[in-house]
Amino acid sequence: MGVLDALLAGLLFHAACVGAPTVNGTVLANHDNSNSSTTIVPSAASMASCPKSCGGKTFDYPFGIGVGCFRSPEFELICNTGGLYLSDNDTEVLLDINVSPQQDISTFFRRYFHVISGVDVYNVSWKAPSIIRSFSLEVVIQGCGFDVYLGDDSAYSCTLTCPGETFPDVTSVVCNGIRGCCVKHLYGTNTMQLQFVRHTNGSFPKYREISVISRSMFLGWSVHADHPPCSDELRNDNNYACVSNNSSCDAEPIDENIYWYRCRCESEYAGNPYILDGCSHVDSAYYYNPVPRKVNCSRSCGDINVPFPFGLEESCSARTQFRLNCTDIATSTLQLDRNYQVSHIDIERGIIDIKLLVFYDIPIFELDHRVYSSFMTSESMHWTIDNLSCLQAQKNVSAYGCVSVNSMCLDFNDSTYKVYDVQEQWKYKNNGYRCQCMHGFHGNPYVPNGCQDIDECKTTPGICKELLCNNTVGSYHCTECPDKTKYDTATMQCIKVKRQRGLLLGIVMGLSAGIAILLLTLSAIFLVRKWRRDVQKRLRKKHFQDNQGLLLEQLISSEENAKDMTKIFSLEELEKSTNNFDHTRILGRGGHGMVYKGILSDQRVVAIKKSVIIQQSEIKQFINEVAILSQINHRNIVKLFGCCLETEVPLLVYDFIPNGSLFQALHSASDSNFTLSWDDCMRIACEAAGALCYLHSAAAVSVFHRDVKSSNILLDANYTAKVSDFGASRLVPIDQTHIDTKVQGTFGYIDPEYYQTTQLNEKSDVYSFGMVLLELLLRKEPIFTDEFGSKQNLFNYFLSELKSRPITEIVDAHIREEATEQEIKSVASLAEMCLKLRGEERPTMKQVEITLHNLRMERLNSLCQVARGNNQEIQPFIYSRANGGDYCCYPCTHVHV
């Protein structure tokens, strides 16, 4: 077979030919539209082992997957890793297939094929399965250098001219009029045919691929019959589909001896009419329960009130149809289901405001088959609580909805409300009832004592005009004020009439005194504020000098890089960015201070470190951290924006790192839905090791961090490691291997040799990093409480356990599941080398980084070898965590068929 033949063969739909279905060896109904004398009716028992869902989409008989689970080959569904498909294995099903009530099938298909040199004409055809009586389709065609012809008569449709550098996004916009793309709408036919003819200029197209993609595709399905639908001949046929008791036949339009019909459950019955005993009686009390079966139900979704009979939880609504879903409290997102969003519920008027989330030309809202809307983005809809009249509903006290005293029942019979019925015709509905509070009362008539009296005197000021208002239960009455009194509109009471003598004099004196007092008060406030500003200004200047501000200014001005990257902030600017250091802005507390979240005037989000109160001798340590960070520019080291010295406690301004620390990710998994994978741990360890290696040997001045720990390794939005907290770090000349200093660090991470000799060197950071590697492997803190309540050192525990059992049994369960035994042994061996008691026996951070990098590359190659299989063209491709992981394998070339 040639290349062209192979491509054209890939475009054709295959036809599924399946023999008589069986269940446990029993022959089921022969539904091939031929007369058969042996017919076994499908039932719930015979369908019990049949799948009912695929990829989140549900379906029911007559559709099915597997032999014996569907009515006929046309109703067969195919489930694979790509999704749920019709019997042609090319038309994907997007939504659930609901057989009661029956709904159209929402589907999708796409075709890609390559342009071949020397071939000028390409054909694409699609034919719906025979159960489909009609479809509506919007097809998007994308290509370059072709004329498109549509239909059997090859009528010209559109021209695909070549676009610029890239094709437009045809999935989100209507691309008619855009180069390289056109849209066509097809209705009422079961077949689509397209032909592509290359332009006659002879040039080979710039883009060598043509795509045909459907949008908003809906297939109307029915059962095919050899007799007129719903006739006596059809009901006596062995292939009659409406096999359930209490089911009935719905006729479909007849077209040239092609007969279609549907099945449904009769009134007061529900279920699947296509299987034996599928329609079962449903008691009216099931449809409406006037008392929620659960107490303490949530009644709000953000700013939206959700009153009964609606509910957000199981057993909190009066009926299944009144169950709503609060998907996001912060944004008040309340959904009826995955397609419709509710913005307001008016209980007293019986109205619900909805908005269509997915724009399909299908009925989008239904409560008990009563109220519909079609092709709307938003709508205010009336609803009822049952399909009974008030007289009928009141006969069943246990299911009657108007339970509040002072409530009344209203029949839904206003002909001004137009709704959409199942026959796809606009009609007026007048069945059903709802409840309303009586005149003079307001509230929720669906709950006990929900209708409360309206105090008209307060809610409608001036309702009695110049008379005194007196509220009564359900009403009010007006009376005149007694003699020598008058009605006061401000207090809405009758007040005594005062004499008017000396009124003008009193007004003048009162105004004069008030103005004088106001001027004195304003003057005093102005003077006090000016005095406070002067005191604060002098105090800030003193703090700036005490905090070595002049020294830092000289340092920044002498270092060109620090001058460009470091800024001295004013206290006023940082107070504004943190809402005056509000306690709700606190991100965390460390050994050297407290960290706040702030938003600068240029909208940058920063972390502001407010150091604990320190001695004057420790100011140099603070300046030391600023000096170190101002000279460092590394992707895995936290970025310093600047500092503020106008307070008694100096402030540092860092780049905000949103995902907390490695310590929190390892030891606070119960508080988060996110868990670090083994690949995450390897990458973070490699990045942190690279940052420390840069500090030791690649920076302009060697830096010994002196406080390496998992809580000082932060994780940004992409979970990239950022080494932070240089308050204890020391600058070291390049020609000097160590410095003598007082011991400082975090218990459990401190190098024992440094603790004994007080000589700080680069191997001290290596020891601390070894403890971080143990945390990654064992997911335990450096000093942890064992099962017996005793405190243990993680390193001592690690060495002790290694003597009695293999390393694979010591590490955390997540590590055992994801990492290979060799990877676990390699990282454990590296950690053990870093934790040698003698510093000269430990590796350098450069060696640690290289070892971790090689381990990651070996893991990447092994993963890609598994993905490669027999395909030698697959190569590794690394992408960021934002795309779902650390790395993946893709073929270097791939062809769509």
Automatic annotation (TrEMBL):
<keyword id="KW-0245">EGF-like domain</keyword>
<dbReference type="InterPro" id="IPR001881">
    <property type="entry name" value="EGF-like_Ca-bd_dom"/>
</dbReference>
<dbReference type="InterPro" id="IPR018097">
    <property type="entry name" value="EGF_Ca-bd_CS"/>
</dbReference>
<dbReference type="GO" id="GO:0005524">
    <property type="term" value="F:ATP binding"/>
</dbReference>
<keyword id="KW-0472">Membrane</keyword>
<feature type="binding site">
    <location>
        <position position="610"/>
    </location>
    <ligand>
        <name>ATP</name>
    </ligand>
</feature>
<keyword id="KW-1015">Disulfide bond</keyword>
<dbReference type="InterPro" id="IPR000719">
    <property type="entry name" value="Prot_kinase_dom"/>
</dbReference>
<keyword id="KW-0547">Nucleotide-binding</keyword>
<keyword id="KW-0732">Signal</keyword>
<keyword id="KW-0808">Transferase</keyword>
<feature type="signal peptide">
    <location>
        <begin position="1"/>
        <end position="19"/>
    </location>
</feature>
<protein>
    <recommendedName>
        <fullName>Protein kinase domain-containing protein</fullName>
    </recommendedName>
</protein>
<dbReference type="InterPro" id="IPR000742">
    <property type="entry name" value="EGF"/>
</dbReference>
<dbReference type="InterPro" id="IPR045274">
    <property type="entry name" value="WAK-like"/>
</dbReference>
<keyword id="KW-0723">Serine/threonine-protein kinase</keyword>
<dbReference type="Pfam" id="PF00069">
    <property type="entry name" value="Pkinase"/>
</dbReference>
<dbReference type="GO" id="GO:0030247">
    <property type="term" value="F:polysaccharide binding"/>
</dbReference>
<dbReference type="InterPro" id="IPR009030">
    <property type="entry name" value="Growth_fac_rcpt_cys_sf"/>
</dbReference>
<feature type="transmembrane region" description="Helical">
    <location>
        <begin position="503"/>
        <end position="528"/>
    </location>
</feature>
<dbReference type="GO" id="GO:0004674">
    <property type="term" value="F:protein serine/threonine kinase activity"/>
</dbReference>
<dbReference type="InterPro" id="IPR011009">
    <property type="entry name" value="Kinase-like_dom_sf"/>
</dbReference>
<feature type="domain" description="Protein kinase">
    <location>
        <begin position="581"/>
        <end position="856"/>
    </location>
</feature>
<dbReference type="InterPro" id="IPR008271">
    <property type="entry name" value="Ser/Thr_kinase_AS"/>
</dbReference>
<dbReference type="Pfam" id="PF13947">
    <property type="entry name" value="GUB_WAK_bind"/>
</dbReference>
<dbReference type="InterPro" id="IPR017441">
    <property type="entry name" value="Protein_kinase_ATP_BS"/>
</dbReference>
<keyword id="KW-0418">Kinase</keyword>
<keyword id="KW-0067">ATP-binding</keyword>
<keyword id="KW-0812">Transmembrane</keyword>
<dbReference type="GO" id="GO:0005509">
    <property type="term" value="F:calcium ion binding"/>
</dbReference>
<keyword id="KW-1133">Transmembrane helix</keyword>
<dbReference type="InterPro" id="IPR025287">
    <property type="entry name" value="WAK_GUB"/>
</dbReference>
<dbReference type="GO" id="GO:0007166">
    <property type="term" value="P:cell surface receptor signaling pathway"/>
</dbReference>
<keyword id="KW-0325">Glycoprotein</keyword>
<dbReference type="GO" id="GO:0005886">
    <property type="term" value="C:plasma membrane"/>
</dbReference>
